[in-house]
Specification:
Helix content is 36%, strand content 22%. The longest helix has 18 residues. It has a five-stranded mixed beta barrel. By secondary structure, it is an alpha+beta fold. Helix 1 runs antiparallel to helix 7. It has seven helices and eight strands. It folds into two domains: 76 residues, OB fold (Dihydrolipoamide Acetyltransferase, E2P) (Beta Barrel); 162 residues, Recombination protein O, C-terminal domain (de novo design (two linked rop proteins), Up-down Bundle), CATH 1.20.1440. The C terminus is likely disordered. The protein is elongated.
Amino acid sequence: MPTYSDEGIVLRRIDYGETDRILTVLTLEHGKIGVIARGVRKSQSRLASRTDLFTRSRMQLARGRGELDVLTQAETVEATPLRSDARRAACASLCAELTDRVLESHHADPEIYSLVASALTACADPERDPRAAIVWFARRMVDRLGYAPQLLDCAGCERRLPEQTAWFSAPGGGLLCVRCAPGDPEAVECTVRVIKVLRAAADGDEELWLRLRLDAPTLQTLERIVESELAHHLDRRLRSIDVLRAIEGRGAVRVPVD
């Protein structure tokens, strides 16, 4: 079988047979692919740790006869140790699940690959709140889907928004002024600070985003906005959102059912 080498991040894995695993891998040069890792669940397998969820590895792969390529070797580039922190692991799972949901197979995108790698690294960073990482990541992915929200003018009446509280409506396509907000009872109330942070995220300047100091109330509001956008724009709910919500002890947010 023809072989090739590529760098990849494990987004999802499923046990198969007695000792194998089927992996969904985001690769740098070949996009999202399906991979079978044979014998990886054996106790003596050297590939076990190199195929953990969220691990970035340099992989040697053989072209399979079907839809799955075969993993033959792997060397870890960066591991993401999250098993001891359920909250960070849930945030990383959200990034991975959203990537898997949004991207088509076999379409390489180095920019998205770098975005995913950075998001997973940030989720594991003990110096950072992982919620900031998922807000930034989800903002970039929603924009990629073509649903960039209106943040300067009211998405309802199209008048320029004054510097005051507004309401974010995912169905409405962005921020609503005080006159238009009653049209969406589930719109998320946004302070002036939250609005400024939303606009900073929309600008796409990651260095500026990393310098922002986001307090707990601001992050919680941003999280609600992200969840409402993903619930509205995706055809099915992201299960990792429910896991994260349960870990944080928050109430349910309505999402489409499977």
